[in-house]
Design a protein that fits this description.
- By secondary structure, this protein is of the alpha/beta class.
- The chain has nine helices and eleven strands.
- It has three domains: 3-83, Arc Repressor Mutant, subunit A, CATH 1.10.10; 91-158 and 259-294, 3-Layer(aba) Sandwich (D-Maltodextrin-Binding Protein, domain 2), CATH 3.40.190.10; 159-256, 3-Layer(aba) Sandwich (D-Maltodextrin-Binding Protein, domain 2), CATH 3.40.190.
- 40% of the residues lie in helices and 22% in strands.
- The chain is elongated, with a radius of gyration of 23 Å.
Amino acid sequence: MDWDDLRVFLAVARQESLSSAARVLRIDPATVGRRIARLEEALGQPLFAKSPQGYALSDAGQRLLDHAVRAEQAMVGAADALRGSSAGLTGQVRIGAPDGCANFLLPQVVAAICDANPGLEVQIIALPRVFNLSRREADMAVAVSRPGAGRLSVQRLADYRLHLAAHRDYLDRHPPIRSLADLRGHRVVGYIPDMIFDKELDYLAEAELSTVPLASNSVSVQFNWLRTGAGIGIVHDFALPAGPGLVRVLPGLLSLRRSFYLIRHADDRRLDRLNRFATALAHGLRQELVRLETAAQRMT
C-alpha cells in the first residue's frame, strides 16, 4: 500500500469532500478522486459512502483510518527524529478551541510561539462544539470539560473565572443591581439554551435565570452585545480588558470558576514536535490568563 495514497485517503476522511481535500493537498479534485478509486480497487472494497452531502467513511474506511493515522504518525515521528529536538518547531499544527479561548487567549499565545519558531504554521479553529480528534479535525483541542471516552490524552491547563458584567452606560440607564433577584428586571445576554454543547457553559442556571432575550451560541457575539451596552451577562475575566467600559456586577455574590483542558490523541504523545508545541502552548496560556485576569481586577 502506497503512503501517498494513504495521505490522500486521510485528507478525504478529514475533509469529507474531494474539493476540500484537494485544497489541503494542493492538487486538483479529479486527481484526488482517481487516487481514492485506485486505493479502493487495490483493497477490493469501498472506503467511502458518496452522497450529495459529501464523502462519509464506510465500515472498511473506518477500519483503515486508525492504520492510516498510525502510518502518518510514524512519518512525522521519523522527520522529528532526523530534525532533532534542538531545532525550531516547523510544519502545521491545528488547534480546536471554544470561541472564548480562541478569541481572547490563543491569538497572542500562538503568535509568541510562532515568533520563536518562524517555520511553524498554526491554525486555530474557533467553534462552539467538541472536536473529533480521532477524525483529526485538529491536532489538539482546548476544552472546558474532560472527555468521557476515547483514546485521548488529557492535561488540565488552568482554572479561569467568570463574572456578571455590563457596560457602564447600560448600568447608568437602568435600575441598580444589588442582588441576584434584581437581574430579572434587566435584559440578559447569554447562550441559546438548546445550543449549549457542554454543561460547564450553562452559566445563567447558576444565576437562576431561564429567559435570555439576547442569545447567541458565540461568545464573541455575546461579548459585543455587552460591550455596546445592550444588556448584562456572564463574561470571562480574561476577556474584560478587551472591552473598555465593561465592569463586573455583583462579584461577591456570583463568581464562577471553570477549567481549560488540553486534549490530544493518545498516540500523539510519541511525537516530539507536538509534545514541544503542547508544552509551549500550556505555558503561554497560563501566563496570559494571569496577565489578563490581573488586568481585569484593576478595572473594577
